[in-house]
Amino acid sequence: MRALVLLGCLLASLLLSGQAEEAEDANEEAPLRDRSHIEKTLMLNEDKPSDDYSAVLQRLRKIYHSSIKPLEQSYKYNELRQHEITDGEITSKPMVLFLGPWSVGKSTMINYLLGLENTRYQLYTGAEPTTSEFTVLMHGPKLKTIEGIVMAADSARSFSPLEKFGQNFLEKLIGIEVPHKLLERVTFVDTPGIIENRKQQERGYPFNDVCQWFIDRADLIFVVFDPTKLDVGLELEMLFRQLKGRESQIRIILNKADNLATQMLMRVYGALFWSLAPLINVTEPPRVYVSSFWPQAYKPDTHRELFLQEEISLLEDLNQVIENRLENKIAFIRQHAIRVRIHALLVDRYLQTYRDKMTFFSDGELVFKDIVEDPDKFYIFKTILAKTNVSKFDLPNREAYKDFFGINPISSFKLLSQQCSYMGGCFLEKIERAITQELPGLLGSLGLGKNPGALNCDKTGCSETPKNRYRKH
Which of 176, 220, 400, 426 could pair covalently with 420 via S-S, beta carbons 3.0-4.6 A apart? Predict the structure, then answer.
């Protein structure tokens, strides 16, 4: 049944696209759409200088380096999550990521939002797969193209970790600096279209891993479809698996909607949800915007007012992400700190259990293998939940620690109680202070947080702080 629905929609869309090709010349001469709602919604015409967040970002960077990174490095958290935070990432602008099948209008949409059509800045577009690179659009004083190897070598940018994906990928990474006011506040990332043809999937670099890197750092993710590309193949299915846990950042876009009559648009809208339903296992479906994101005026006898309101709603969504830049950044660093703390507590528990079970005649390798293979037998995770107020939903996968300790011997770690110094204090105390006081206090300085001092361990999940044996209590 599902296949028949999709086939019917595809045939109808092909007929409509044929009509669109016949009217192509007319479209070229058609009047351009009014852009005043874009400037108004995104406040591009305002002359006020952009807010200076450098002091807050500097404070955030200091908290990360002094209170979070020592514990992160000591317990090798990056080898568990593969997510290294750089200074460039902390100070970076919000990132908007465009994903979806080939030739659905991702590059055209970026050109439209930035007003780059018919200028030397515009991204190349066409009916065939045109974007083979990951294209990062950033602000700059003049038009400038930056090669991927240069972007990865510049530690001041947030893209230096991409070097780990190899030189083949860096040849497919390109940065474009454009003197545009919107890009002063946000960064756009255009991606290669999803191609289900098996031969064309052989890209020469780990495409899914690269997508995951951008997904993990994106503040807003636009997944774009058009009426002719609603089928879900292996590559698109893998992409939605990677998006799990990021549902609040996902926005679905049904583009080129003015090519369809009302009845056909309703059918295509239903077919889109039918295709995506098995891939998005959440109670509330993501927001879907239905419109045509390109500069030409809407086709006659279509729902122009509806499409315009949908477009304005999307722009308001984008503007909200820009306005909440600092709040989202602080919340991200705090979430990262909570995960680092949980990881350190677990490694400490593994190490303590290992030492308790070791005797003079024990084989250390066999003892620890028994602990790693069945941590529940030794109450590793249950002890963490009982004594430290950690939510069970925040605990990492048990299987991940088999690989983690396979690379990092348990003997290479110290107990948390030994991670203290007279001048620097205890690592665990410092990260808990950052979670419960410093980061909420930074939010409070923006005029949004409540009294930071009111936050306590009952709400944020901290306790069992080891005493600093180098200090008098």
Answer: 426
For residue 310, give Cα distances in angstroms to 37, 197, 229, 277, 288: 12, 32, 21, 22, 9
Q: Report the C-alpha gap between 277 and 289 in whole angstroms.
A: 16
Q: How many helices (H) and strands (E) does the chain have?
A: 21, 10
* Contacts with 82 (C-beta within 8 Å, 6 or more apart), sequence order: none
Kindly state the helix (H) or strand (E) to which residue 136 belongs, with its residue range. Answer: strand 134-139
Does any domain span residue 465? no
Give the count of beta carbons closer than 10 Å to the beta carbon of residue 176: 18
Mean pLDDT of 41-55: 75
Q: Within a domain: residue 66?
A: yes
Q: Are residues 236 and 354 in the same domain?
A: no
pTM of the model: 0.80
pLDDT band for position 24 (cuts 50, 70, 90)? very low
Domain span holding position 280: 93-302
Same domain, 53 and 145: no
Report percent pLDDT > 90 for the chain. 49
The verdict on residue 204 lying in a domain is yes
Which segments of 324-419 does DSSP mark as H helices, in order?
325-357, 364-373, 380-388, 398-407
